[in-house]
Structures are given as structure tokens and as C-alpha cells.
Design goal:
This protein is an alpha/beta fold. It has two domains: about 30 residues, no CATH class; about 170 residues. It is about 30% helix and about 20% strand. The chain contains ten helices and eight strands. The chain has a six-stranded mixed β-sheet, with helices on both faces. A two-stranded antiparallel ribbon has the order 1-2. The radius of gyration is 25 Å and the shape is flat. It starts with a strand and ends with a helix. The N terminus is likely disordered.
Amino acid sequence: MVHEVLKDKGKIDMGKDWVDRFVIGHSGIMSKVGKSIDKQRDLGTKVPILKNYLERFYMLKSRYHVLPENVRNTDEKSFAIGLGAGRRVLCHTRRRNAKIMQDGKRDWVTEIEAVSGVGKVLASLGISFSTAHLMAHLANINYEIDNDAFLTYSIDGYTLSEIALDWFDQIFESHSSSAQVITPHQILVLDRHSLHVNNIQFIEYAIANNLCLICLSGHTTHILQALDNRLFSLLGQ
């Protein structure tokens, strides 16, 4: 496409390659392939928004003298069973596209994890899709107990408010109380899932157990949430 500009009241044909010549002539500029990103996701990572979360975190940390081992991030991640990522396969050299067939099922399992500010991982909880505990779910129960991993179930494989509260009450609290040496207060960083922000029982539990909550918006978790940045980002590939 021919680009035209007005200069000294006359038209100058810049030519179709003017962009390439412009980039070559300016060492501080380079051409890159742009990555599509949702507008709200981009707006959620503006400096004032991120700064507000960090200021709240350091204010709570300073007010209650919270140690790094008492700072925790918890999150849940759901996975579709039978839906794998791309991987290398052997095929004929003339084949253009190598295909990996899926069974078409979309049954889900969910993993709840928590990690502290010093990298200590708390006991995880796996939620399988079922209407009751099956023998197959308990086949490795000794392994799970030895490795601080627990199993439960829901009808669709997603977490429920009752499951989340049980995990906090029976697993999170018992595994995190030993770190409360200087102060009983803890900081818990989590997303604004309805199980957290719209759950009166969870809010009451947090108040009763001196949990200072920092609820991140969905457009900031990929930057501010440790589990999203590390563990779950790898599992989602």
C-alpha cells in the first residue's frame, strides 16, 4: 500500500518499504510480533493498580509483624481429564500435520494448593468428579498421607464452598499453625473467586483465625499470584 504525507504543501510518495527503512535508520526501534491480550487484562496490570495491592500487603505485614513463613498464597486449578498438550509423535515425512486423538470427554479434576513466602508447600487437596468415594480414589491413600496430599470429590470435579472450608479448617490451619511463633496473624493472598469473597462462612473463618485477606482481581493474578506464576502456569501448558 502506498503511503502519502504532506510536506511543504506538496505530496511526497514515501513508498511501500518506508517502514522497513525507518526501522533500519533508528537503532532504538525494532519490529516485533504483537501478542493479543484482553483489554481488561491489560488495564488490570497498570502500575497504580499493582502499587495499591503491594501497599496493602506491606501495610498488613508491618502492622501485624507477619513473617515470610506466615504469608501464604492459595489457589485452585482445574484440569480436563484426557485433554493433553501437544507432543512429538512419529509419522511419515509426507504427512503435514501430526494428530493426537482425544477421547472427547470433558470430565474435570481440581487441585487446591498453598505455598508460603519461604517456599513451603502445604498439604494439597485433589477433587475428583464423582458422587461418592470409590475404591480407585483410595488406592494410593498411604502415599497421599505420607506426602501431605488428600483426596475428596464433587459431582463435577470442581471445588465447592463446603470443600474449601473443610480444607482451610482441617488442612490449612493444622499445617500452618506451627509457623505462628511471634504473631498469630497471617496474610493470605487469593483470587476473588465467589467461594472467597461471597462466602460469609469463609469471611467469618478468616476473622476468627486472624487471616488478613488480600483478594486479587482476576486481571492481576497472572502477575501477583505466586501459584499462577510458577506451579499452575507450568501445569497449564
